[in-house]
Amino acid sequence: MSTTPAPRRSLRERKAVPPQSPDDTPPKGKRKRADSGSEDDDDDPKPRRKAKQSPIAKKPRKTRKTKDGEDAFDPQQVAKESKIHADNPLFSVQLARISAIYINFETPDAILNPAAALQSTAEDFLESLDQSPGLALAEIVNLVLRSCGCNESVDADQVVDYDGVVDALDKFTEDLKNQEQTAAYPLTSKLPAFKKFRKSLHEFLDRLITSAASLGSLYTSDLIPTLQAWVIAMSSSQIRSFRHTATFIALELESALCGVAAAVEKEAELSARQREGEKKRRAGKAAAAGNKNLDAKAAEIREHRDKLKEFIKDFVDSVFMHRYRDLDPVIRADCVLALGTWFTKHPAHFLEAAYLRYLGWVLSDPAAPVRLAAVKALDSVYSQSTYAARTLQFTERFKTRLLEMATKDVDAAVRVSTLGVLELLAATALEEDERETVALCVFDAEKGVRRAIGPFVHECWRETVEERLVGRPGMVKDEERARAGVKAFGTVLVQWGARLDEAMEEDEDDENESGEARSSKQKEPSALVGISPEDRLGRAGLVVEALWDHVEAVSDWETLLDVLLLDHSSAEDTSAPARKGKANGKARANDEGLVDEAWRLEEEEETVLIEVLVASLHHAKAVAKKGEEETVTNDITRALIKALPRLLMKHQTDQNRIANVLALPSLMNLDLYLEMRMMTNYTNLWDDIIKQFLSHSQPSVLRSAIGAFQHLLAATSLSNQNNLKMLELEDELSSALRDAVAGREEIEVAGFDEDEVIALGATCARLAELCSTRDMSGWMEEDEGGKQSSAWNIVNALADRGRLGYKEEAFMISQSLQLLTVHIFWKATRLRVVDPEDENGDVPEQAEILDKVKEQRDSLLEKLVEFAVGTQSNTAEAVTRTAFMCLMNLHMVFGPAHKIAAVTLDDEVQFRCAGYVQAEIERYAETLVGPDAPVPDANDDRDDEKENDSGDEEGSDAGDDGKKRKDKGKGKAAASTKQSVKEVDPNSHTSLLTEYAFIELIVTFVRAIQTGALHVRHTGILLSHYGRLGTTFDHFTKPIVDMLREEGMTKDNGDLVVVVVNQALQEAFTMVLDGVVSDETNAVQLAKHLLPTFILRGAHLAVLKKLDPQYIVQIQTNALSWIAKRIAIYETNSNKKSLRVAITFFRVMVPLLASIQSRDAMKIKAHMDQVLAQAKVEVSATSKVWEPQRAYEKRLAAIMAKDKVAGTKGRKPKASKGDGLTTDEDETDLSEVEKLVEDRASPPPAPRPRPRPRPRRAAKTPENVQDDDEDDQAGPSSPEPPTTPKPRPRARATYKSKAASKSPVKAPSRPSPEPEPDAVPSVPSTPRSQSELSDVPDNVPDDAFATPVNHNSRKRSRSVDEDDEDDAHSLPAPSPTPGGDMQIRRKRARH
After folding, report:
1. CA-wise closest residue to 30 among 133, 94, 100, 103
2. Which residues are paired to 99 by β-bridges?
3. Could you say which DSSP state residue 138 is in?
4. Region of 1086 on the Ramachandran plot (φ > 0 left; ψ -120 to 50 alpha; else beta)
5. SS3 151
6. Are 794 and 737 in contact (CB under 8 A)?
7. Helix, strand and coil in the chain, % to nearest 5
8. Predicted local distance difference test score (pLDDT) of residue 608
9. Contact assessment for residue 736 and residue 764, using Cβ atoms and an 8 Å cutoff
10. Could you tell me the pLDDT band of residue 1241, with boundaries at 50, 70 and 90?
11. Residue 1382 DSSP SS3
């Protein structure tokens, strides 16, 4: 036989080769393995081909090129990293043997190889499948196993044993569970080798099925049945790697089969057309012969189609139907994505309601990736217009869900994709109100959602434009279409704005009805709440940003400006018959200046479009290309030079519009006035802005005008004109101020009419706004050499009128105080430290300035203290608030850090300021009606049920009549509460202003504390309201926690931390006791919020700093003493309702135990027992009312037990001798609490070597009981935790009586029997807690403790060895004595 290598045949030329025995010679055309020294093995990494014998040329194999810097594929390294064997040629190995007998070749085309040619891999596999089916099928099943991360393999016999598939998989599963492998497998692994595994596996399976269909082996071989037998069984495995990988492979096979089935369907249609054409073209025998061939071909196609339908149905029924609702969201998402692929590949079979409904069901999936996959699948369906008729029923059924997802889904990506689907449905399936609902997303908080809605809005806007132009004669010009577009855009914005307001009101009503008002306010876009005014955009700004690239009316600011310059009121002044005479009822522009009805704006539309114009000009400058910014700015300036005066004149009477128009000068390049020699226009611009500034007092208008002043003053080339105009403005303001008070000697008490008060208030407001941006201190003190009163004196006299308490003058006085405060700030900027020895220094001048500043400041401070926290002042509420904020601001500026003129607040004034803040908090809280508002009857009934069910022996004092009264009043209270909830609108203008003013007050108070103007001890007022006043208020408590942590850890001022924390906790819980809040939730959250005050953690929760434990213990003990007094009062007064609420305070203290140690826990435990004993409170062991106290006590016990276990880790314990037994060391560990108890009872005895005798107990006598009472009175005994005792020299009782100490009688060797419970004398004892029974560690068996009973039976005598052995395995059994004392008893385990 010749050894010359033969060329490899193409797929079309290959024929099936019958299997041969191992002894047979391989067929011709196949390569033999060369000798060990052959050139093929050593040098050529790829197999050599024989010369082609077929006339049909085969395309050369294409391989992927390795990218630069990419490492060569190393299968051994991949196997080492992934722990997956490299023994499968299709998966990872280079030197592979698909058939051990017939095919031996080197393949670099494994799936894991990033440079593999997967088409060649599929062809080689199919060739081996024809020659040796069993081995080839085994290789592809092993590929599935390796893809699952399993190293097990199947052979040629196992792979076709379909009945043994389940048993084999069970074995593989058990083996995989026993292996120490990570949870990652190729589909989910983060290893670089598996980065493209999913894509490569998808490509290989697709090419494999397509090639098999082309060769016909898909229909003749057992490829698909074998894969189905294994993959379907693996898709139901409990192992996630098996289930996920098998599902993925099944879905990919199904997708490939869908592509083949679609091709077969087209081939069947083509065959049918050929048969029809053949019948028409031929007749007779020739036609019969042709039809016979076509019939044979048609029969073959039908056979293929039937097989494909069977394959597709099996995968859908056995895999998809079960896995699309898998617990793993990744598997569910894969199923949904595959279903979308099937819709596009084989719509004839899958695009039916039976399959579309699965997409509708998963639209409500809790996992966002699954919902996103469903929306993407729908997008692929709706993008084909030919599918519209088949999806009509589905659309009508699930359209509501799609609208909900687009507007309210929590995942932004899902919303963006859903908007794309609704864009495809906008023209055919959505009603007008539904389109408006979707269009409201243009105001959404998510920037991505606003951008995604652009195409949808464009369609709505375009339809509106066409409606405006319907019926116009002739061809519509571009200018007319552009103007109509502006009108249409204004129309839709007004409609959507009104719809948005209604939607917000509806949301608030829904929240109010559910009792959750103000708890979940709608998230505002960041553009609406920017840090600086320049960053804040209104609704128009959001719209412009979102629609700039989609709606021409937004980006075409020139047309927008032209439309706004038109007089839209002209058409309204025209008579109705004149308008009716026009064609189609449309008013056309004529010589009289009428505006065409197609673009005539309404009042609301004009207001909105002015905002759009300002935002559009801002955005045009922002998006200008690099190098074109100046050109764009100059174009805007040239247009505004002509248009701005007309806009100012047209809208000067409308405050909202003029505020936006005054924002336009800041967009201009003012140097163009000088370059174009238009100084007259520049002067007129100054005059127009000054006129608006002097005509309006609205803060928004004043700020816009001042912004325009600042921009004009920044033009240095026009400084002469600017200075001249500013002098004119100052003269105007001075004249207005003096004219308003002319002829009055004593302004402080003079009478002013209403108009004069309004004029003075407006003047002071203008001066305050102007002085906040410009130093006008010289103008304020100018008196022309004493010829007239200075502005400072006049404004100071107006501020003094605050003592009169006139509410109508509150605005004037508030603005006066702000103006005076700003003036002092400007004066303070001139102060500087001067060296007295400096000859060149201006010491006298600085001293004069300092004296003047101090005089004015002290005078103002005296006035502010009187107005803000004075006791005799009759100041209006608004004046009081302004005075308080000005007082805080002045003390922040002249605080302790000021080097020249520092001033401090007296302690009394500080406490008054804190009291004022407390009063403002309560006043603001009254305006809130939300989840914190208690509903007394409902809560009382719930608490009463808890008490009745708790089994408390005291029972309930309320009878049936009381319950009836409660039930009767319950409905009324609920109705009144619901009614009060509905009356509050958190988004109303008044509510928002109130919230803003309150937050501004709180911010000022916190800043004053941070700067040292107020003492840190006053922060407890704010902390006590944590969780009650909203998230914004809670945000400002974070700096307070940081300040307390700094005081305690850095400044060693732990006493201050104790005071503030205790005050905050007590005041927070007092609101619970008083019924101000419904439960203790806010107080518990406050305790958790204060936890960083005690401990500072770093990376990986490492403890960096801790507060001294004594202060933490002091906080706990102070809180326990406080609540114990409250409980005692409620217990004495039999106030069970308040008692139940008071006991919940223990829940508040539990979070604060996170940073304490064992000894600290013992001190707290001892103090708790002491205060409860002194309060004569009996803790019930079964009542649910005392559950918070038991949980608190259990937490203390756990801390003590944890540290004790940690302390014994260094010991080497002895081997256990039996179940439930302990070693000697375990028994001899005496807890520190027991030692404290023994130290109080008697002095410690001298140590004695082991073995020690058994503990003895003496019979209790009346003398013992009396002595116990004396011991209890001397000091409370701490209950012992259930830990093993330390060795003692001899046994004794935990209490020691006088009679027993004097008795010469020696104690018996074994314990005396205890008297029966009935025989125990009734002696009064101090009530104690249940800690003696409840403090049981988790690691102690249930039978380790037993209550001692009276044993009358005789027992044999025990030897010393038995005693020692029993002592070695004994466990403590603490139990309360009848008299209430503590006694240690041990139960011996016999064996």
Report:
1. 103
2. 103
3. H
4. alpha
5. coil
6. yes
7. 60, 0, 35
8. 92
9. no
10. very low
11. strand
Closest by Cα among 1151, 1156, 1163 to 1192: 1151
Spatial separation of the C-alpha atoms in residues 854 and 900, rounded to whole Å: 10
Closest residue by Cα to residue 252 from 196, 206, 195, 316: 206
Residue 1308 vs residues 288, 1248, 1258, 1347, 1348: alpha-carbon distances, Å: 124, 20, 8, 21, 18
CA atoms within 13 A on the CB side of 938: 12
Structure tokens belonging to residue 323? 């896995």
Which backbone phi and psi does 1014 adopt, to 5 degrees? -120, 155
Q: Could you give the angle at the alpha carbon of 1032 between the alpha carbons of 1026 and 1034, nearest 5°?
A: 20
pTM of the prediction? Answer: 0.70
pLDDT digits 0-9 by tens, 1128-1146:
999 889 888 999 999 999 9
| Angle, CA 772 vertex, CA 774 and CA 713 arms, to 5° | 35
- What is the residue type of 1208? T
- The residues pairing with 1372 across neighbouring beta strands, listed in sequence order, are 1386
Query: First-to-last CA distance in the chain?
Result: 87
What pLDDT is stored for residue 227 in this prediction?
A: 92
The answer to whether 547 and 454 have CB atoms below 8 angstroms apart is yes
Q: Which of 942, 982, 975, 940 is nearest to 516 (CA)?
A: 982
What is the tally of helices (H) and strands (E) in the chain?
A: 60, 8
Q: How far is it, in rounded angstroms, from Cα 445 to Cα 435? A: 19
Alpha helices (H) in 366-477, listed in sequence order: 368-382, 392-408, 412-425, 432-439, 447-452, 454-468
Who contacts 289 (Cβ-Cβ below 8 Å, separation ≥6)?
none
Residue 873: CA count within 13 A, CB half-sphere: 19
Contact 820, 795 (CB under 8 A): yes
pLDDT at 109: 55
Q: Provide the sign of the torsion angle of the four alpha carbons 253, 258, 263, 267, taken in this order.
A: positive
β-bridge partners, 1376: 1382
- Helix boundaries (H) for 953-1108: 960-983, 989-1010, 1020-1023, 1031-1035, 1038-1045, 1054-1073, 1081-1090
Shortest CA distance to 1020 belongs to which of 1113, 1086, 924?
A: 1086
Dihedral angle, C-alpha 724, 729, 733, 738, nearest 10 ° = 30
Q: What is the pLDDT of residues 149-200, one digit of tens each?
A: 888 888 888 888 889 899 999 888 887 777 655 557 888 888 888 888 888 8
Interatomic CA distance for residues 776 and 1360, integer angstroms = 102
Sequential DSSP letters for 581-619: TSGGGPPPP-TT-PPPTTSPPPHHHHHHHHHHHHHHHHH
State the DSSP string of 1020-1042.
Answer: HHHHTTTTTS-HHHHHTTHHHHH
Q: Which residue has the tokens 């004569």?
A: 1176
Q: Work out whether strand 1095-1097 and strand 1375-1376 pair parallel, antiparallel, or are unpaired.
A: unpaired
DSSP 1343: G
Token pair listed for 385: 């217009």
Q: Which tokens belong to 70?
A: 């990419």
- CA 893, chain centre distance (Å): 38
For 972, the token pair is 């009324």
Res. 25: pLDDT tops 80: no
Tokens at 1108, concatenated: 């001294």
Give the residue carrying structure tokens 């309006």. Answer: 696
pLDDT > 60? residue 757 = yes
8 A C-beta contact, residue 234 and residue 243 = yes
Give whole-number Cα distances, 524 to 538, 543, 999, in Å: 11, 14, 17
Helices assigned H by DSSP within 776-876: 777-781, 791-800, 810-828, 843-869
- The one-letter amino acid code at 893 reads V
